[in-house]
Specification:
eight-stranded parallel sheet; alpha/beta; 10 helices; 41% helix; globular
């Protein structure tokens, strides 16, 4: 079996390059052979990318998260576009909206989000979307501006009804370790009511520790199979067949070859 972690903040697990490589090796030993490295800021992207740019199986997204709305960086649009030309950079993100911590103001967040959707469209790349307490505005924006290459709702947090509304768009739903929590009924209902070929898995490392590893301080990509096993039980699927389908979904979402 092989697994694809579609969202891991490797630079937040450890900032030391040697430790980062150790995390990736641990993941490969666990069968997690592809990882998308995510950063919130362009500065963090540069650091992590330079550490990992020649590591096999590691891909990268570049963008400005809503947490950086008040300071995205000078000439940030050109910087994103320049970084999109680098090897193994395959998506824009993470971007999106976060009204929980009220970064900046809503209008500024929406403008930052829309600009990155336009960049994704220009470069024919998928966009990775962060959503916290902003589901309606994200849906409204995507209804008009979703890139042709599609979007990934990462660490999905809405309910099944919201997912149903999104099914007519090129959207994948990515679930993290919180799927394994007993009280995550909205997520359980969602995975039971959306097509299997729209589901992705991620670790959201170092956050969202799967229930099996709740005694740990940080999530790591190596923990992804735990979430996959939980999903297989929930869907009454064979884990080998499920892992193959999830791999296929992930490659399709990010326009990567399956082999």
């Amino acid at each position: 079996m092989k697994f694809f972690d579609t969202h891991a903040h490797i630079g937040l697990i450890y900032d030391d390059p040697v430790e980062q490589l150790r995390v990736i090796q641990q993941a490969k030993l666990a069968g997690v052979t592809r990882i998308i490295s995510i950063n919130n800021s362009l500065l963090d992207f540069e650091k992590t990318y330079n550490n990992l740019k020649i590591v096999s199986g590691v891909y990268h997204a570049v963008g400005v998260a809503p947490s950086e709305v008040t300071n995205p960086g000078s000439n940030w649009i050109n910087t994103i576009e320049k970084n999109l030309t680098l090897p193994n950079v395959i998506a824009v993100g993470e971007t999106g909206l976060d009204y929980y911590k009220q970064f900046g103001d809503k209008r500024s967040q929406i403008e930052l989000f829309i600009t990155q959707l336009e960049i994704a469209q220009k470069h024919n790349l998928p966009v990775i979307i962060h959503n916290r307490d902003a589901g309606k505005d994200i849906y409204d924006v995507l209804s008009e501006r979703i890139p042709d290459a599609g979007a990934i709702l990462h660490c999905y947090s809405e309910d099944a009804d919201y997912a149903q509304k999104c099914l007519d768009k090129k959207i994948w739903f990515s679930f993290a370790g919180n799927l394994t929590y007993r009280n995550a009924r909205n997520l359980h209902e969602t995975v039971l009511n959306i097509p299997l070929d729209r589901i992705l898995l991620e670790t959201e490392s170092p956050f969202m520790i799967p229930a099996e590893f709740r005694d740990k301080k940080r999530t790591k990509p190596a923990y992804l199979p735990s979430t996959a096993r939980f999903l297989a039980e929930m869907l009454d699927k064979n884990i080998e067949e499920l892992s193959a389908q999830l791999w296929k979904n992930s490659c399709k979402a990010f326009n990567l070859p399956e082999e």
